[in-house]
Amino acid sequence: MIDRLVIVGLGLIGGSLARALKKQGAVGEVVGTGRREASLIRGQELGVIDRWTLDLGEAVKDADMVVIAAPTLAAEKVLESLKPHMRPDLIVTDVASVKGSLVAAAERIFGEVPPQFVPGHPIAGSEQSGVEAAKDDLYVGHRVILTPLPNTDAKACEKVRTMWEATGAEVVDMDVAEHDVVLAATSHLPHVLAYGLVDALAQSGSAQAIFRFAAGGFRDFTRIASSDPVMWHDIVRANRNAVLESMDTFTEHLAELRKAIESDDSGAILATFERAKKARDEQFLTQYQVKGKGQ
Ligand SMILES: NC(=O)c1ccc[n+]([C@@H]2O[C@H](COP(=O)([O-])OP(=O)(O)OC[C@H]3O[C@@H](n4cnc5c(N)ncnc54)[C@H](O)[C@@H]3O)[C@@H](O)[C@H]2O)c1
Ligand SMILES: O=C(O)C(=O)C[C@]1(C(=O)O)C=C[C@@H](O)C=C1
Protein backbone atom coordinates (compact mmCIF):
# COMPACT_ATOMS: atom_id res chain seq x y z
CA MET A 1 0.00 0.00 0.00
CA ILE A 2 1.30 3.44 -0.96
CA ASP A 3 -0.07 6.12 1.36
CA ARG A 4 0.71 9.12 -0.83
CA LEU A 5 1.68 8.85 -4.50
CA VAL A 6 2.74 11.81 -6.63
CA ILE A 7 2.40 11.75 -10.41
CA VAL A 8 4.54 14.35 -12.20
CA GLY A 9 3.12 14.78 -15.71
CA LEU A 10 -0.48 13.63 -15.63
CA GLY A 11 -1.23 12.02 -18.99
CA LEU A 12 -2.08 8.59 -20.41
CA ILE A 13 0.62 6.64 -18.59
CA GLY A 14 0.63 8.39 -15.19
CA GLY A 15 -3.17 8.70 -15.22
CA SER A 16 -3.64 5.01 -16.05
CA LEU A 17 -1.30 4.05 -13.20
CA ALA A 18 -3.28 6.21 -10.78
CA ARG A 19 -6.58 4.77 -11.98
CA ALA A 20 -5.34 1.17 -11.71
CA LEU A 21 -3.95 1.64 -8.18
CA LYS A 22 -7.13 3.37 -7.00
CA LYS A 23 -9.25 0.56 -8.44
CA GLN A 24 -7.19 -2.02 -6.54
CA GLY A 25 -7.21 0.01 -3.32
CA ALA A 26 -3.39 0.00 -3.49
CA VAL A 27 -2.97 3.72 -2.87
CA GLY A 28 -4.21 6.19 -0.26
CA GLU A 29 -3.95 9.59 -1.90
CA VAL A 30 -2.81 10.51 -5.42
CA VAL A 31 -1.40 14.00 -5.90
CA GLY A 32 -0.90 15.34 -9.42
CA THR A 33 1.67 17.93 -10.39
CA GLY A 34 3.17 19.22 -13.62
CA ARG A 35 3.15 22.22 -15.90
CA ARG A 36 -0.36 22.32 -17.29
CA GLU A 37 -3.05 23.35 -14.84
CA ALA A 38 -5.76 22.24 -17.30
CA SER A 39 -4.66 18.55 -17.23
CA LEU A 40 -4.49 18.57 -13.46
CA ILE A 41 -7.92 20.16 -13.06
CA ARG A 42 -9.36 17.64 -15.54
CA GLY A 43 -7.57 14.81 -13.75
CA GLN A 44 -9.23 15.76 -10.47
CA GLU A 45 -12.65 16.14 -12.16
CA LEU A 46 -12.27 12.64 -13.60
CA GLY A 47 -11.27 11.21 -10.22
CA VAL A 48 -7.82 10.18 -11.50
CA ILE A 49 -6.10 12.26 -8.80
CA ASP A 50 -7.34 13.44 -5.40
CA ARG A 51 -5.67 16.84 -5.48
CA TRP A 52 -3.07 18.81 -7.41
CA THR A 53 -0.53 21.56 -7.08
CA LEU A 54 1.88 23.25 -9.50
CA ASP A 55 4.49 23.34 -6.71
CA LEU A 56 6.67 20.21 -6.93
CA GLY A 57 8.12 20.72 -3.43
CA GLU A 58 4.63 20.91 -1.93
CA ALA A 59 3.51 17.87 -3.94
CA VAL A 60 6.29 15.57 -2.71
CA LYS A 61 6.12 16.71 0.93
CA ASP A 62 5.08 13.67 3.00
CA ALA A 63 4.82 11.50 -0.13
CA ASP A 64 6.09 7.89 -0.21
CA MET A 65 6.57 7.62 -3.96
CA VAL A 66 6.99 9.93 -6.95
CA VAL A 67 6.34 8.68 -10.48
CA ILE A 68 7.82 10.87 -13.21
CA ALA A 69 5.45 10.43 -16.14
CA ALA A 70 6.50 13.28 -18.42
CA PRO A 71 7.99 12.86 -21.94
CA THR A 72 11.51 11.36 -21.91
CA LEU A 73 13.57 14.57 -22.20
CA ALA A 74 11.22 16.50 -19.91
CA ALA A 75 11.70 13.72 -17.32
CA GLU A 76 15.36 14.78 -17.06
CA LYS A 77 14.24 18.32 -16.19
CA VAL A 78 11.81 16.96 -13.60
CA LEU A 79 14.64 15.01 -11.95
CA GLU A 80 16.63 18.23 -11.78
CA SER A 81 13.71 20.09 -10.17
CA LEU A 82 13.31 17.23 -7.69
CA LYS A 83 16.89 17.52 -6.46
CA PRO A 84 16.23 20.06 -3.65
CA HIS A 85 13.27 17.98 -2.44
CA MET A 86 14.94 14.55 -2.38
CA ARG A 87 14.79 12.65 0.92
CA PRO A 88 16.30 9.20 1.55
CA ASP A 89 12.81 7.83 2.26
CA LEU A 90 11.21 9.26 -0.90
CA ILE A 91 11.13 6.61 -3.62
CA VAL A 92 11.38 8.00 -7.14
CA THR A 93 10.57 6.07 -10.28
CA ASP A 94 9.66 6.90 -13.86
CA VAL A 95 7.98 5.50 -16.96
CA ALA A 96 10.16 6.97 -19.71
CA SER A 97 10.61 4.90 -22.85
CA VAL A 98 14.41 5.26 -22.86
CA LYS A 99 16.40 4.35 -19.76
CA GLY A 100 20.07 5.12 -20.57
CA SER A 101 19.55 8.85 -21.11
CA LEU A 102 17.60 9.28 -17.86
CA VAL A 103 20.10 7.26 -15.82
CA ALA A 104 22.92 9.39 -17.30
CA ALA A 105 20.95 12.54 -16.44
CA ALA A 106 20.46 11.31 -12.85
CA GLU A 107 24.22 10.74 -12.58
CA ARG A 108 24.91 14.23 -13.94
CA ILE A 109 22.39 15.90 -11.62
CA PHE A 110 23.08 14.01 -8.38
CA GLY A 111 26.74 13.01 -8.83
CA GLU A 112 25.64 9.39 -8.56
CA VAL A 113 22.27 7.83 -9.30
CA PRO A 114 20.32 8.10 -6.01
CA PRO A 115 19.73 4.62 -4.49
CA GLN A 116 16.02 5.38 -4.09
CA PHE A 117 15.62 6.09 -7.84
CA VAL A 118 14.24 3.00 -9.59
CA PRO A 119 14.10 3.46 -13.38
CA GLY A 120 11.06 1.80 -14.92
CA HIS A 121 9.12 1.43 -18.16
CA PRO A 122 5.66 -0.05 -18.69
CA ILE A 123 5.48 -1.83 -22.06
CA ALA A 124 1.89 -0.81 -22.63
CA GLY A 125 0.32 2.27 -24.05
CA SER A 126 -1.53 3.57 -27.04
CA GLU A 127 -1.44 6.24 -29.72
CA GLN A 128 -3.67 8.37 -27.52
CA SER A 129 -2.33 10.75 -24.96
CA GLY A 130 -3.55 12.97 -22.15
CA VAL A 131 -5.35 12.25 -18.90
CA GLU A 132 -8.70 11.81 -20.68
CA ALA A 133 -7.31 8.64 -22.30
CA ALA A 134 -6.20 7.09 -18.97
CA LYS A 135 -7.63 3.60 -18.33
CA ASP A 136 -7.54 1.47 -15.18
CA ASP A 137 -6.78 -1.73 -17.15
CA LEU A 138 -4.01 -0.42 -19.42
CA TYR A 139 -1.32 -2.52 -17.71
CA VAL A 140 -3.27 -5.75 -17.17
CA GLY A 141 -1.31 -8.62 -18.74
CA HIS A 142 1.51 -6.34 -19.89
CA ARG A 143 5.14 -6.29 -18.84
CA VAL A 144 6.83 -3.54 -16.90
CA ILE A 145 10.62 -3.39 -17.14
CA LEU A 146 12.66 -2.12 -14.20
CA THR A 147 16.34 -1.33 -14.78
CA PRO A 148 17.81 -1.12 -11.26
CA LEU A 149 21.51 -0.33 -10.89
CA PRO A 150 23.97 -2.06 -8.56
CA ASN A 151 23.46 0.68 -5.94
CA THR A 152 19.65 0.77 -6.20
CA ASP A 153 18.01 0.25 -2.83
CA ALA A 154 16.42 -3.23 -2.71
CA LYS A 155 13.45 -2.03 -0.61
CA ALA A 156 12.73 0.83 -3.04
CA CYS A 157 12.88 -1.64 -5.91
CA GLU A 158 10.47 -3.99 -4.15
CA LYS A 159 7.99 -1.16 -3.51
CA VAL A 160 8.02 -0.16 -7.17
CA ARG A 161 7.64 -3.82 -8.22
CA THR A 162 4.68 -4.27 -5.86
CA MET A 163 3.05 -1.10 -7.19
CA TRP A 164 3.19 -2.31 -10.79
CA GLU A 165 2.05 -5.83 -9.87
CA ALA A 166 -1.04 -4.27 -8.28
CA THR A 167 -1.99 -2.91 -11.74
CA GLY A 168 -2.03 -6.47 -13.16
CA ALA A 169 1.37 -6.20 -14.86
CA GLU A 170 4.24 -8.68 -14.86
CA VAL A 171 7.46 -7.00 -13.70
CA VAL A 172 10.84 -8.00 -15.15
CA ASP A 173 14.32 -6.63 -14.49
CA MET A 174 16.68 -5.72 -17.31
CA ASP A 175 20.03 -4.09 -17.83
CA VAL A 176 19.77 -0.41 -18.87
CA ALA A 177 21.70 -0.76 -22.16
CA GLU A 178 19.92 -3.98 -23.10
CA HIS A 179 16.56 -2.28 -22.50
CA ASP A 180 17.40 0.53 -24.91
CA VAL A 181 18.64 -1.82 -27.66
CA VAL A 182 15.61 -4.13 -27.37
CA LEU A 183 13.09 -1.28 -27.28
CA ALA A 184 14.79 0.45 -30.23
CA ALA A 185 14.02 -2.68 -32.26
CA THR A 186 10.52 -3.50 -31.02
CA SER A 187 9.05 -0.07 -30.33
CA HIS A 188 11.14 2.84 -31.59
CA LEU A 189 11.86 1.43 -35.09
CA PRO A 190 8.17 0.58 -35.77
CA HIS A 191 7.17 4.13 -34.78
CA VAL A 192 9.86 5.64 -37.03
CA LEU A 193 8.65 3.44 -39.91
CA ALA A 194 4.99 4.33 -39.37
CA TYR A 195 5.69 8.07 -39.15
CA GLY A 196 8.06 7.81 -42.14
CA LEU A 197 5.58 5.90 -44.31
CA VAL A 198 2.61 8.17 -43.59
CA ASP A 199 4.74 11.28 -44.11
CA ALA A 200 6.14 9.98 -47.42
CA LEU A 201 2.66 9.18 -48.71
CA ALA A 202 1.21 12.47 -47.45
CA GLN A 203 3.94 14.39 -49.27
CA SER A 204 3.37 12.54 -52.53
CA GLY A 205 1.25 14.10 -55.29
CA SER A 206 -1.41 11.40 -55.02
CA ALA A 207 -1.90 11.59 -51.25
CA GLN A 208 -5.66 12.09 -51.47
CA ALA A 209 -6.26 9.00 -53.60
CA ILE A 210 -3.87 6.93 -51.53
CA PHE A 211 -5.58 7.72 -48.23
CA ARG A 212 -9.04 7.38 -49.79
CA PHE A 213 -8.40 3.77 -50.79
CA ALA A 214 -6.38 2.73 -47.74
CA ALA A 215 -8.10 0.19 -45.51
CA GLY A 216 -7.31 -2.29 -42.73
CA GLY A 217 -3.70 -3.08 -43.65
CA PHE A 218 -2.75 0.58 -43.81
CA ARG A 219 -4.70 1.35 -40.63
CA ASP A 220 -3.00 -1.47 -38.68
CA PHE A 221 0.49 -0.59 -39.90
CA THR A 222 0.12 3.14 -39.27
CA ARG A 223 -2.01 3.39 -36.10
CA ILE A 224 1.06 4.42 -34.14
CA ALA A 225 1.77 7.35 -36.49
CA SER A 226 -1.12 9.04 -34.62
CA SER A 227 1.01 9.00 -31.44
CA ASP A 228 2.16 12.20 -29.79
CA PRO A 229 4.97 13.77 -31.89
CA VAL A 230 6.69 15.37 -28.86
CA MET A 231 6.87 12.05 -27.05
CA TRP A 232 8.47 10.35 -30.08
CA HIS A 233 10.77 13.28 -30.83
CA ASP A 234 12.13 12.86 -27.31
CA ILE A 235 12.47 9.07 -27.61
CA VAL A 236 14.43 8.96 -30.87
CA ARG A 237 16.76 11.72 -29.66
CA ALA A 238 17.32 10.10 -26.27
CA ASN A 239 18.01 6.67 -27.84
CA ARG A 240 19.72 7.91 -30.99
CA ASN A 241 22.50 5.31 -31.36
CA ALA A 242 20.31 2.27 -30.79
CA VAL A 243 17.58 3.70 -33.04
CA LEU A 244 20.09 4.36 -35.84
CA GLU A 245 21.49 0.85 -35.51
CA SER A 246 18.00 -0.63 -35.73
CA MET A 247 17.20 1.53 -38.76
CA ASP A 248 20.44 0.45 -40.50
CA THR A 249 19.80 -3.26 -39.87
CA PHE A 250 16.27 -2.88 -41.17
CA THR A 251 17.37 -0.86 -44.22
CA GLU A 252 19.83 -3.61 -45.19
CA HIS A 253 17.10 -6.21 -44.81
CA LEU A 254 14.67 -4.14 -46.88
CA ALA A 255 17.33 -3.74 -49.60
CA GLU A 256 17.64 -7.55 -49.78
CA LEU A 257 13.88 -7.89 -50.10
CA ARG A 258 13.87 -5.19 -52.78
CA LYS A 259 16.53 -7.11 -54.71
CA ALA A 260 14.48 -10.31 -54.49
CA ILE A 261 11.38 -8.52 -55.82
CA GLU A 262 13.34 -6.73 -58.56
CA SER A 263 14.91 -9.97 -59.80
CA ASP A 264 11.60 -11.84 -59.38
CA ASP A 265 13.31 -14.30 -57.04
CA SER A 266 10.19 -16.20 -56.03
CA GLY A 267 12.07 -18.44 -53.56
CA ALA A 268 13.65 -15.52 -51.70
CA ILE A 269 10.38 -13.54 -51.56
CA LEU A 270 8.41 -16.50 -50.24
CA ALA A 271 11.15 -17.47 -47.78
CA THR A 272 11.17 -13.93 -46.30
CA PHE A 273 7.39 -13.80 -45.91
CA GLU A 274 7.25 -17.36 -44.48
CA ARG A 275 10.00 -16.62 -41.94
CA ALA A 276 8.22 -13.43 -40.89
CA LYS A 277 4.80 -15.10 -40.55
CA LYS A 278 6.31 -17.96 -38.52
CA ALA A 279 8.17 -15.55 -36.22
CA ARG A 280 5.09 -13.40 -35.65
CA ASP A 281 2.69 -16.34 -35.15
CA GLU A 282 4.99 -18.54 -33.06
CA GLN A 283 7.22 -16.13 -31.21
CA PHE A 284 5.39 -12.83 -30.85
CA LEU A 285 1.74 -13.94 -30.68
CA THR A 286 2.35 -16.89 -28.32
CA GLN A 287 4.14 -14.56 -25.87
CA TYR A 288 1.52 -11.85 -26.26
CA GLN A 289 -1.49 -14.16 -26.16
CA VAL A 290 -0.32 -15.93 -23.00
CA LYS A 291 -1.47 -12.73 -21.40
CA GLY A 292 -4.83 -12.86 -23.18
CA LYS A 293 -4.07 -10.12 -25.68
CA GLY A 294 -5.33 -10.02 -29.25
CA GLN A 295 -3.73 -10.14 -32.70
N1 LIG B 1 2.12 6.47 -24.63
C1 LIG B 1 2.68 5.30 -24.57
O1 LIG B 1 2.30 4.38 -25.27
C2 LIG B 1 3.79 5.09 -23.57
C3 LIG B 1 4.07 3.80 -23.12
C4 LIG B 1 5.08 3.61 -22.16
C5 LIG B 1 5.81 4.71 -21.72
N2 LIG B 1 5.54 5.94 -22.20
C6 LIG B 1 6.32 7.06 -21.68
O2 LIG B 1 5.55 7.64 -20.65
C7 LIG B 1 5.77 9.05 -20.59
C8 LIG B 1 4.42 9.77 -20.65
O3 LIG B 1 3.77 9.42 -21.84
P1 LIG B 1 2.19 9.64 -22.01
O4 LIG B 1 1.79 8.81 -23.17
O5 LIG B 1 1.51 9.51 -20.71
O6 LIG B 1 2.18 11.17 -22.46
P2 LIG B 1 1.02 12.27 -22.21
O7 LIG B 1 1.28 13.34 -23.20
O8 LIG B 1 -0.30 11.63 -22.17
O9 LIG B 1 1.36 12.79 -20.74
C9 LIG B 1 2.55 13.48 -20.46
C10 LIG B 1 2.27 14.55 -19.42
O10 LIG B 1 3.50 15.19 -19.05
C11 LIG B 1 3.28 16.59 -18.96
N3 LIG B 1 4.57 17.29 -19.12
C12 LIG B 1 5.19 17.64 -20.26
N4 LIG B 1 6.35 18.27 -19.97
C13 LIG B 1 6.45 18.32 -18.63
C14 LIG B 1 7.40 18.85 -17.73
N5 LIG B 1 8.51 19.45 -18.16
N6 LIG B 1 7.17 18.72 -16.40
C15 LIG B 1 6.06 18.09 -15.94
N7 LIG B 1 5.11 17.58 -16.76
C16 LIG B 1 5.31 17.69 -18.07
C17 LIG B 1 2.27 16.88 -20.05
O11 LIG B 1 1.60 18.11 -19.81
C18 LIG B 1 1.34 15.67 -19.91
O12 LIG B 1 0.35 15.92 -18.93
C19 LIG B 1 6.74 9.38 -21.71
O13 LIG B 1 8.04 9.42 -21.19
C20 LIG B 1 6.60 8.19 -22.65
O14 LIG B 1 7.77 7.98 -23.40
C21 LIG B 1 4.54 6.17 -23.09
O1 LIG C 1 0.47 0.51 -28.20
C1 LIG C 1 1.00 1.54 -28.58
O2 LIG C 1 0.42 2.38 -29.27
C2 LIG C 1 2.38 1.83 -28.20
O3 LIG C 1 3.02 2.49 -28.97
C3 LIG C 1 2.92 1.39 -26.91
C4 LIG C 1 4.44 1.34 -26.83
C5 LIG C 1 4.93 0.34 -27.89
O4 LIG C 1 4.50 -0.81 -27.82
O5 LIG C 1 5.74 0.69 -28.73
C6 LIG C 1 5.00 2.68 -27.07
C7 LIG C 1 5.98 3.22 -26.32
C8 LIG C 1 6.37 2.63 -25.10
O6 LIG C 1 7.44 3.13 -24.50
C9 LIG C 1 5.83 1.36 -24.77
C10 LIG C 1 4.82 0.85 -25.51
Order of helices and strands: EHEHEHEHEHEEEHEHHHHHH
CATH class of the largest domain: Alpha Beta
Number of strands: 9
Strand order of the largest sheet: 3-2-1-4-5-6
Shape: globular
How can the largest sheet be summarized?
A: 6 strands, parallel
Q: How much helicity do the residues have?
A: 40-55%
N- and C-termini, Cα separation: 34 Å
Number of structural units classed as domains: 2
Q: Which structural class should the secondary elements be placed in?
A: alpha/beta
Q: What is the CATH topology of the largest domain?
A: Rossmann fold
Mean pLDDT comes to: 96
Assign the CATH superfamily of the largest domain: NAD(P)-binding Rossmann-like Domain
Q: Please compute the radius of gyration using only Cα atoms.
A: 21 Å
Task: Explain what the structure shows.
The longest helix is centred in the middle third of the chain and has 28 residues, at 176-203. The model has no long low-confidence stretch (mean pLDDT 96). This protein has helices at residues 12-24, 37-45, 56-60, 72-82, 100-110, 154-166, 176-203, 207-212, 216-222, 229-238, 240-262, 266-290; strands spanning 2-8, 27-33, 51-52, 65-68, 91-94, 117-118, 120-122, 143-146, 170-173. The protein has a 6-stranded parallel beta sheet with strand order 3-2-1-4-5-6, sandwiched between helices. The chain is α/β, with parallel strands linked by helices. The structure holds nicotinamide-adenine-dinucleotide (NAD) and prephenic acid. Nicotinamide-adenine-dinucleotide is lined by residues 8-14, 34-36, 39, 69-72, 74-75, 77-78, 95-97, 122, 125-126, 129-130, 228, 231, 235. GO terms for molecular function: NAD+ binding; prephenate dehydrogenase (NAD+) activity; prephenate dehydrogenase (NADP+) activity. It comes from Litorivivens lipolytica. Keywords: Amino-acid biosynthesis, Aromatic amino acid biosynthesis, NAD, Oxidoreductase, Tyrosine biosynthesis. It catalyses: prephenate + NAD(+) = 3-(4-hydroxyphenyl)pyruvate + CO2 + NADH.
